[in-house]
Specification:
Layout (H helix, E strand, L loop, with lengths): L11 H15 L1 H19 L5 H24 L17 H29 L2 H10 L4 H8 L2 H21 L2 H8 L3 H14 L1 H28 L6 H28 L13
Helix pairs in contact: 1-10, 1-11, 2-3, 2-11, 3-4, 3-8, 3-11, 4-7, 4-8, 5-6, 8-9, 10-11
């Protein structure tokens, strides 16, 4: 497939989000099931001694590509299944190996960020997590959270994680649909996000606003109704919904930047 790098207006950031919700509305059970399946698989991978975390990190780029393929199927009035996560490895040996190499690079870079951030915060994040796991007193938790090194470690994690997400954002799709090699895919993805930084920044702002608004609304509703005990359940449900919609929207960011552009309106669902 021939891909052409395109520049899109910033307002398309809203278009991607809106289309993600529309696609989810067409196949909510199937799409939510795919994300739930990945979460279950993630727990199984974490149970693998030693290599569990590495396997999970390697799988994350394929999660985004799998959902792009799932969204494409929904637009074709088909119901996606778990097969979408295996399709990228069935094209050619070269593309399969490149996808595996992408996953390995992403995992190693993420582990490197974790080690660097741990050095910056002096282990304060691990200490806070251990105190929370042990059910420590609120005073001890507040003291650990007030450590200035914890803030710098968190900033390091967030900034570096955002930076490495840029070359990997479209890379799996560029390998799958464009047949690009490792370095070409990483470079093309970086250029696409930079050229369309307005749309991606607007999209990120919308997602951040939506997450905070939904979280605040759920908290207020639970407080008013006196159902604070179900707040964790509401949080999990909202998290599953928004995560699924987010991944369903990734397909539109790709076709907008590299293919024929995201449509203003989706075709009617005939299924």
């Amino acid at each position: 497939m021939i891909l052409h790098l395109q520049t899109v207006p910033a307002r398309n950031g809203m278009l991607w989000l809106r289309h993600g919700f529309k696609v989810f509305q067409r196949r909510p059970v199937a799409l939510a099931g795919l994300f739930s399946l990945f979460l279950f698989a993630s727990m199984l991978m974490l149970m693998v001694p030693g290599a569990g975390v590495l396997l999970l990190l390697m799988a994350l780029p394929q999660l985004s590509l799998g959902f792009m393929l799932a969204t494409h199927l929904v637009l074709q009035n088909q119901t996606p299944s778990a097969v979408v996560f295996l399709l990228p490895f069935k094209l050619t040996p070269k593309r399969r190996n490149t996808q595996l190499l992408l996953g390995a690079c992403y995992a190693l870079l993420t582990l490197g960020i974790s080690l660097l951030a741990g050095w910056v915060d002096g282990g304060s994040m691990d200490q806070l997590q251990q105190l929370m796991a042990d059910g420590a007193a609120p005073e001890k938790l507040a003291e650990a959270a007030a450590n200035p090194a914890l803030l710098w470690g968190a900033i390091t994690r967030l900034v570096l994680a955002a930076l490495i997400s840029i070359p990997f954002w479209h890379a799996p799709a560029l390998v799958h649909w464009g047949g690009q090699g490792l370095m070409q895919a990483l470079f093309s993805s970086t250029i696409a996000l930079w050229r369309n930084r307005g749309a991606f920044a607007y999209n990120a702002l919308l997602w951040g606003t939506l997450v905070m608004s939904l979280g605040l609304s759920a908290s207020l509703l639970a407080e008013v109704l006196g159902l604070a005990q179900i707040l964790p359940v509401l949080g999990m449900a909202c998290g599953l919904l928004l995560s699924t919609v987010f991944y369903a929207s990734l397909y539109f960011t790709f076709i907008d930047c590299f293919m024929f552009g995201a449509p203003t309106e989706l075709p009617d669902n005939k299924a």
